[in-house]
Amino acid sequence: MTVKQLIGMPGLIVNNIDCSHSLVKIYASIKAKRAKCPVCEKHSNKIHDRYTRTISDFPVFQNKTTIFLKTRKFKCQNG
User: Fold this and answer.
1) Is 71 within 8 Å of 47 (Cβ atoms)?
2) Where is the Transposase IS204/IS1001/IS1096/IS1165 zinc-finger domain (predicted)?
3) Distance of CA 17 to the CA centre of its chain
């Protein structure tokens, strides 16, 4: 996936891109306000937890690339 493809993803917000010292850091977050429960398949907007995933990717223009993705875990309200 290229940076252009990442920026163009409809469910993703790119908050910042920091390029320094042969390192590209991309700070992004998920747009979704709710998620579907894998068990009951109903949607929930109750947030259970927030966390950041760190993803190391292929170099971009010969620079090491790391994506910091803020995401949430939703809690099923039916269980």
Assistant:
1) no
2) 34-78
3) 14
